[in-house]
């Protein structure tokens, strides 16, 4: 299939640089990678997303361009893609225009949104604070109104955290429900494509385009509030989320309170970390050993850890995750949703020391590992602000219940005003 939207000239690095530099700061905002060739790509003339614009995390193939994964040395070693990634093609066929590839955390191995090679995309809804990663550019561009929706991905929180920190909608779908062809791997046991939108209506429309047909319909008749997950969040954030649930009482079932992880989240987080590290090294280790790329702070240390994880350690961790998965899936059958904070706090400041960022990452993973290990969908909804900064409220649904979560996001926005205006 011929790539849709090919420009009528041979794109060059020189042209891309002129185009990038000609944008105003408001238009670019550090959201896009410098190797944005063949953009924009026009979508189909008609379709559910016709007239809308979309950005794409630089882990998805766009025909005729190289995919960088947040690392310029990886980018240099790649050949131009011969065809669009499956999710990109779906957007184009639905009428969306792709406006650019966005900055992501290096090899997707962070939740900060700071890239040592391409910079930190500006979080216009929380100035001076991190956008969250690894889908940082996609979330920040959406929050800034540069695009209507954006593709990201989520392994350990890379949709949910930037959605929360940028005050937009984001979905980590049921594992396996979106085409991953033409998308870079990280840790395939947990990797899922996902997307952001600032408008709940656009958010739901994108789901109808991107999700496969393996939906499991059920009315939301049971709401569980994860008290142990709320205990992981800072008190002001937890109070905001509880107030939102109270305000939304007429739109939600009468809640029950549960502890999601009876023995605590730490064992789940550690098992997730080990399996993620093992699989990430299988994905990127051969390249790193051969090319010795310059890795940014935090990424270098995590890759060094990943290189040490043995097959025996991974198999022991997988046994923990299998039991946890069975437990969580039994807790959230069709018709049940689980409420929890998307993130433990508002976004850290951009100048937060490395040690404090690592502590934040550990706290994040205690919250995000539940959906990751269970393979269940989780939606992050803008709940309001704490100290002027966005904070997201999440709901985990049942396997195949992604559409129910999208409908819930729309209903809460309609009845409770859960959406932040553009900055």
List the helices and strands and how they pair.
Elements: H1 13-22, H2 25-28, E1 53-57, H3 72-76, H4 86-93, E2 97-102, H5 136-143, E3 149-154, H6 160-166, E4 169-172, E5 192-197, H7 200-210, E6 222-226, H8 227-230, H9 235-247, E7 255-258, H10 266-291, H11 299-306, H12 311-331, E8 336-341, H13 354-374, E9 378-386, E10 389-396, H14 402-416
Parallel strand pairs: 1-2, 1-3, 6-7, 6-8
Antiparallel strand pairs: 3-5, 4-5, 4-9, 8-10, 9-10
Helix pairs in contact: 7-14, 10-11, 10-12, 10-13, 12-13
Short description:
This protein is α/β, with parallel strands linked by helices and 423 residues long.
In words, what does this structure look like?
With 423 residues, this protein is of the alpha/beta class. It folds into 3 domains: 198 residues, Alpha-Beta Complex (Amidase signature (AS) enzymes), CATH 3.90.1300; 140 residues, Amidase signature (AS) domain (Amidase signature (AS) enzymes, Alpha-Beta Complex), CATH 3.90.1300.10; 39 residues, no CATH class. The protein is globular and about 55 Å long. The two termini are 39 Å apart. The longest helix has 26 residues. Helix 10 crosses helix 13. A 10-stranded mixed β-sheet has the order 2-1-3-5-4-9-10-8-6-7, with helices on both faces. It contains 14 helices and 10 strands.
């Amino acid at each position: 299939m011929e790539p849709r939207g090919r420009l009528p000239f041979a794109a060059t690095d020189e042209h891309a640089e002129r185009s990038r530099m000609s944008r105003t700061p408001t238009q670019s905002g550090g959201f896009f990678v410098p190797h944005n060739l063949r953009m924009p790509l026009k979508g189909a003339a008609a379709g559910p997303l016709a007239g809308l614009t979309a950005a794409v995390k630089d882990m998805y193939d766009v025909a005729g361009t190289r995919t960088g994964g947040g690392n310029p040395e990886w980018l240099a070693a790649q050949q131009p893609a011969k065809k669009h990634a499956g999710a990109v093609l779906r957007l184009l066929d639905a009428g969306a225009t792709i406006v650019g590839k966005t900055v992501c955390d290096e090899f997707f191995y962070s939740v900060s949104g700071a890239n040592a090679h391409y910079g930190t995309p500006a979080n216009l809804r929380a100035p001076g604070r991190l956008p969250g990663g690894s889908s940082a550019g996609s979330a920040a561009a959406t929050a800034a109104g540069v695009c209507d929706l954006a593709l990201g991905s989520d392994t350990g929180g890379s949709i949910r955290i930037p959605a929360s920190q940028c005050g937009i909608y984001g979905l980590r779908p049921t594992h396996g429900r979106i085409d991953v062809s033409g998308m870079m791997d990280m840790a395939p046991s947990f990797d899922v494509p996902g997307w952001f939108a600032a408008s709940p209506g656009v958010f739901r429309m994108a789901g109808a385009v991107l999700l496969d047909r393996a939906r499991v319909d059920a009315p939301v008749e049971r709401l569980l509030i994860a008290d142990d997950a709320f205990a992981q969040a800072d008190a002001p954030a937890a109070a905001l989320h509880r107030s939102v649930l109270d305000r939304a009482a007429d739109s939600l079932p009468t809640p029950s309170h549960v502890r999601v992880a009876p023995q605590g989240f730490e064992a789940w987080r550690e098992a997730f970390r080990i399996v993620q590290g093992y699989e990430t090294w299988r994905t990127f280790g051969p390249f790193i050993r051969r090319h010795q790329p310059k890795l940014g702070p935090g990424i270098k240390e995590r890759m060094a850890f990943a290189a040490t994880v043995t097959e025996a350690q991974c198999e022991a961790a997988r046994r923990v995750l299998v039991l946890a998965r069975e437990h969580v899936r039994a807790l959230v059958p069709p018709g049940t949703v689980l409420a929890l904070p998307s993130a433990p706090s508002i976004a850290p400041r951009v100048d937060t020391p490395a040690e404090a960022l690592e502590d934040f990452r550990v706290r994040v993973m205690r919250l995000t590992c539940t959906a990751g290990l269970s393979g269940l969908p989780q939606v992050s909804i803008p709940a309001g602000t704490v100290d002027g900064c966005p904070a997201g409220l999440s709901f985990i649904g049942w396997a195949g219940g992604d559409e129910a979560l999208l409908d819930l996001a729309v209903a809460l926005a309609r009845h409770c005003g859960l959406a932040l205006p553009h900055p």
